[in-house]
Structures are given as C-alpha cells and as structure tokens.
Amino acid sequence: MNYKHVHVIYFSPTHTSAKIAHAIVEGMGAVSFSESDLTYEMPDSEEVVERELTVVAVPVYGGRVADTAIERLKKFVGKDSPVVPVVVYGNRDYEDALLELSDLLVQQGFTLLAAAAFVGEHSFSTSQYPVASGRPDQKDHDEAFLFGQHALEKLEACSSLESLSSLQIKGNRPYKEKKPSAPAAPLVDASRCNLCGHCIGVCPVSAISIVNDEMYSDPTRCIKCCACVKECPEEARTFPNPFAEYLYKNFSARKAPEMFL
Known about the structure:
By secondary structure, this protein is of the alpha/beta class. The chain has seven helices and 14 strands.
C-alpha cells in the first residue's frame, strides 16, 4: 500500500511530542503532510481523516493520556487511514498510556499500523533535579526517524489495511486509575515577572490571566504541564514539587524508546 500524504496530529505543551512526531514523519519521507496542533484549542468541528497515513503524538501524565488530549482527539475520525500512535513520557514509565491512545484511535475509526513510546524531558525536571533533561535529543530524533522508515516499510508491504496484523502493545485493561490530585499551579516571582504575557499564550488550557496587575494561574484549570515554567523568558515561574527530587533519585538513568511494529 502506498500513502504519499502524512497527517500529523499532536498535543504538545512543552514541544517534546511534536518533535518526536515530526522526526517520525521525516523518516516516512512523505511527499506532503498536513498538521493538526491540538495543544492550544479544541477543533471547532469533527474532522474526517480519509486515506491518510497518520501519526498521533501526546504526552503521558501519570501513566495515562492527558484528559485534555483525549477530549481534543475525539474530534478526529479515521476512514481508511493507518495510524501510528506515539506517547512521550518523562523517563519514569508510560504504563497504560500507549494502549489507551491506541484503543482510542481504533475507536475513532483508524487502523493501527505501529506504535511507540519515546522519552522527553519530564515536566517537573529542573536544573536542581534534572530528569531526561534536553530530551528528545539527537539520538532520540534518529531513532524516531528510523521508526518512521520501518512503519512505512510495513505499510508498503501490506496488500490492504485489513491484512495488518494486530499489535501487542504494552499496557493493561482496565487502565491505571486516574487518582484525583490536589489543585496546584506554578508560583510567580513578582520581582522577575514583567507581565509580558508570554505564559498566557503557551498555556494549553487558558489557566493564566492578569489579575490586579499580577499574573494569576487558576489551580483548578492548571494541568501541571509546566509549559509556562519552561518558557518564561524571565525565569519568573516555578512549580515547587517534592516529586521532582524523587524522580531525580529514581529515574535519572536513560531509558530507550520502545517500538511496536
């Protein structure tokens, strides 16, 4: 089977999922590609993805796919479209996230071609407690590129989508329970913050606003992606979290991507 066009879909607050998705698409050598960035808004209406090789990449939060990503992905319906679900996790474990994403895409009408879990810098990573700092790096990019090549080779060897063999993907059903967490949001150092508003633009859930000449982050909306912390040009935002030290002590050893073909 020959698909000349690739459609890439991603939810990527700190850009790690987007980087991996683009590297995979490069490996597929597409003649053309289209992009759906779900990071900042919900699609206005349902979109049918018809006869397009599709790559879907999202981050892992607590071993599951982020609720915001799931909500936005449900706007896409696949029709005769092979799909490559990809999750990006912070070097701890992706647990049931890849299986969950794969199940969702099949439910939405896509046909599974391949799947993978890659590593990106953890949202809670800091200079004091770095966890997968700087990832995805060049090695990750090269492995994602090769994965894209292998996925395309598998598709080209198939006579039809129906002939694709079922994938055995790591994970469990029922998925890991999503336990409620206490509302929290990044702190702002008023002596550094100049109210530039950059953080407002990078927040994927519109949790940040200016109130009484101060930056306010709504803890009931914040999804703890830390995009605003990592992108603040004045380094005025922090997300104090005792979990960061635990991650650093227990999950600093480099983990390799896992691929299912």
